[in-house]
Specification:
This protein is an alpha+beta fold. The protein folds into two domains: about 55 residues; about 60 residues, OB fold (Dihydrolipoamide Acetyltransferase, E2P). The chain is about 25% helix and about 30% strand. It is built from four helices and six strands; from the N terminus they run βααβαβββαβ. The strands form two sheets. It has a four-stranded antiparallel beta sheet. Strands 1-2 form a two-stranded antiparallel sheet. The longest helix has 14 residues.
């Protein structure tokens, strides 16, 4: 059985307003159960719509071509901050509500011309990825 997600939370997960989600429901793009207050959407249906929206995004065209990297977790965003010293650089990338921070050599940051305002892609490859249920955290109640 799939989770039921409040319209407000579903809209936030998609990065749209509640009104946009309701318009999409009226257009048949996603179902909203309005018999409950607040209205809810099916989690599996929301996941499908999220994947569809990601595939349609103009940012998807900015990702490096498939097969050019073994990393499968890639997120395109805008560089918001770069702190350089003589050897290392700290680069911050904002991708929607998500912030990525990378430590790299100063030489690499210079070669990539990473400065605030540059569009860049964060590639994440890790042996450990922790996933937790948001609805089971204390602050989610």
């Amino acid at each position: 059985m799939s989770d039921r997600i409040k319209v407000t939370e579903a809209a936030a997960l998609l990065g749209v307003s509640d009104d946009t989600l309701r318009r999409w429901s009226d257009a048949g793009r996603i179902g909203i159960d309005r018999s409950t207050t607040p209205g809810t959407v099916d989690g599996a249906e929301l996941a499908g719509l999220a994947a569809q929206i990601a595939a349609e995004s103009p940012l998807a065209r900015l990702l490096p071509a498939e097969g050019t990297s073994s990393a499968r977790n890639r997120v395109t965003g805008i560089v918001t901050r770069v702190v350089r010293d003589t050897v290392m650089a700290q680069v911050e990338l904002q991708a929607g509500p998500f912030r990525f921070v990378s430590l790299m050599s100063r030489e690499a940051a210079d070669e990539l011309q990473l400065e605030p305002g540059a569009i860049a892609t964060a590639s994440v490859k890790a042996t450990t990825v922790v996933v937790e249920r948001a609805d089971q955290r204390k602050d989610a109640r």
